[in-house]
Automatic annotation (TrEMBL):
Organism: Leptospira kmetyi
Lineage: Bacteria, Pseudomonadati, Spirochaetota, Spirochaetia, Leptospirales
Keywords, comma-separated and alphabetical: Oxidoreductase
GO terms for MF: oxidoreductase activity
Coiled-coil intervals: none
Single GO cellular component term: membrane
Oxidoreductase is among the record's keywords: yes
Record-stated family: Belongs to the short-chain dehydrogenases/reductases (SDR) family.
InterPro entries, sorted: NAD(P)-bd_dom_sf (IPR036291), SDR_fam (IPR002347)
Protein name, entry field: SDR family NAD(P)-dependent oxidoreductase
Amino acid sequence: MKTQSLRPILNNINTLKYPKLINFLPSKTAFITGAGSGLGRAMAEELAEDGWSLILADVKNEGLQDLRNILRSKGVTVEAFQFDVTDERQFEKYFQSAMSKFGSVELLVNNAGLGAGGNLNYFEVSEWRQVFEVNVIGTAIGIRTVLPQMLKRKCGHILNIASAAAYHSLPFIGAYNATKAAVVSITESLNGELSNTGVSCSVMISGFFKSSLSENTIGGERAIALTKGLMELSSLSSKDVAIRTLKNLEARRFYNIIGPQARIFYFIKRHFPKLMLFLAPKVAENAFDKALLVESRG
């Protein structure tokens, strides 16, 4: 049975899930990195339901092409490119390819990321470089590549995906914490630079949630166990986070804080920073215990 195109239906504003987005992003065209799984995939699926045209990127091809095929079968206009966001030439090449087809990109979601953890006494310098290349330099390359055409058109939004790790500073994921703190700071600086340009930006800050992050984590078994445990402590799925992120984007919130865990840590860090230092090791210990429990259940 042939799948009916969603676009004629979704052009009716009354059927849109996120109708306020078109007030400042009228062309409904988004470029999403790390789109093959987890949050990136969930955000692509949510925007597709509203008839957005999508440019999807991921370093892994299988999930990326699977998503592209599913969305195309539903009548969504979508292109998918496999490349590493740390490769500036590849990013520029595929962005220009997308521009030749779509004409503009109004929403950039810098979502591609790498988990990292382990005792800082043993964490290799090469691992530090690897996680900073993906999480920080990849974000910077995305901004540098896509922003110029937004400024030229005086229209667009850059959404950088950070984490509550930027301020809760749990032990054994120090490198990951540092990269996400950098993403928050970059976005805060960018916000000032974009004043009176017609282009805006925001940063999404969530606690850990159920996603594919543990499959993309370096630093050994302890890092993976902690990541899994932190995800198990959350009731949120990638889809839950995608929906809340887009709702906050509609509301034009610069600090796009998602979930009770992230909000509680944010409050404590701002008002009781020494308490956060006390709580952080206990949260990590609880996460390890949760990971062991899940592992024992098979």
